[in-house]
Amino acid sequence: MILLTGGAGYIGSHVSVALSDAGLDVVVVDNLSNSNKASLERVQTICGRSLVFRHADICNEEAVYEILRAYDVSAVIHLAGFKAVGDSSVRPMAYYENNVVGTMRLVSAMTRASVKTLVFSSSATVYGCPEYLPLDEKHPLKPTNPYGRTKFFIEEMLKDLCNSDPCWRVGILRYFNPVGAHESGLIGEDPVGIPNNLLPFVAQVAVGKRDKVLIFGNDYDTADGTGIRDFIHVVDLACGHLSVLNHLKQPGMLTVNLGTGSGNSVLEVIRTFEAVSGRSVPYEFGERRPGDVAACYANPTFARKALGWKSRRSLAQMCADHWRWQSQNPDGYRGTQPLQYRVSKLKVRAG
Ligand code: NAD
Ligand code: UFG
Questions:
Q1: Which atom of ligand 1 has the smallest separation from the CA of 124?
Q2: Which of 67, 220, 222, 239 has its CA 20 to 30 A from that of 344?
Q3: Which ligand 1 atom is at minimum distance from the Cα of 147?
Q4: Closest residue (by CA) to atom 18 of ligand 2?
């Protein structure tokens, strides 16, 4: 059994599908602080298999320990955490508590339960302002915001853990910009309030929920003046987790970029979205967003060599799948019916 923290969220729901499709049993642990458990009902519909959901907080070490023991867990994929860059500057302590302390509690529960295989969701944000491009895993780490620093500290903590005990098998995944949705249109990103990220904002403009996209700067030193990012299809990203689990059959530690290796500008994304959706996406240029860099994209060579993994889906497919999700679910998961889950007999303290 694989324990997936944060499995009800955007990336987690897609990782749940990838694991289930690979025939693995999954127990999702999520406190639903930024998600809706309807996502997991839909995961079960997509896969035709049940998964176990446990409403718990990773900061609750006893709850996590009981779940690890009850389900005979062999490995943990750890996605639970807060992720909004701007919010992390407003309430940094909440980020350190949830992300860093949460991971410490999780690792402590795993140690007690003798579960020593862990895959952790880090982020390209740990690199900070690129000193060279494309970014390989050896690039210096200089995160520029509290969220990025939580990921950096967790990475360092996990390295120390592996150095102290060679039984640990740890995979650190530095995601670039996950976008898109499962091709069924049943699961996807469901941001609360005004989306921070580009694709959800573009999709909400295309569906008529917002008037126009504000492009944060058109005076960058890039071909069209707008920012460049490495957008990666969330399904390709999810498949990367399976490759890492497979790799961790051997002991040790692995840190790897999950990106496509190519960058696309904000204007390219908008034009591609318009082409695949057939909708117009009005935009206007505004000031640069503080903290943004001109360009950020991965060198994905190590992932290919070490894991045999590479992304497959094009920007057009990312936009088409994102649009299918958005147009079929204009209000996200809100309004969907409650779930019928496999009910566990285990009593878990409230998270
Ligand atoms: P998300 O918010 O959709 O999913 C995170 C999930 O974790 C949510 O379901 C939330 O309810 C849950 N959660 C949060 N704190 C918890 C806690 N203490 N206990 C239990 N559950 C908790 O975010 P996502 O986009 O799916 O991101 C997943 C992971 O990937 C995060 O760690 C994020 O930092 C990382 N990441 C995301 C991106 C991105 O652009 N989406 C990029 C790089 C890295
Ligand atoms: N952008 C706009 N208008 C918007 C939103 C974004 O012009 O309304 C631009 C940004 O300026 C940037 C590009 O679109 O040039 C991408 O911005 P996102 O907010 O979608 O993504 P970021 O690269 O800023 O950050 C994301 C996640 C971080 C993660 C990072 C690297 O939000 O958590 O990717 O993985 F760390």
A1: 43
A2: 239
A3: 34
A4: 197
Identify the band that residue 336 occupies on the pLDDT scale cut at 50, 70 and 90: low
Atom 8 of ligand 2, nearest CA residue: 198
User: Does any domain span residue 350?
Assistant: no
124 lines ligand 2 (CB under 6 A): yes
Kindly state whether residue 224 falls inside one of the protein's structural domains: yes
> In which band, very low, low, confident or very high, does the pLDDT at 334 lie, cut at 50, 70 and 90?
confident
296: domain CATH number? 3.40.50.720
Q: How many domains does the chain have?
A: 1
* Backbone φ, ψ for residue 73 (5° rounding): -75, 135
pTM score:
0.95
Which one of 10, 95, 127, 147 is the catalytic residue?
A: 147
Cα-to-centroid distance, 235 and ligand 1 (Å): 16
Identify the residue whose C-alpha is closest to ligand 2 atom 15. 227
Q: How confident is the model at residue 338 (pLDDT cuts 50, 70, 90)?
A: very low
335 pLDDT tier (thresholds 50, 70, 90)? low
| Residue span of the structural domain in which 192 resides | 2-345
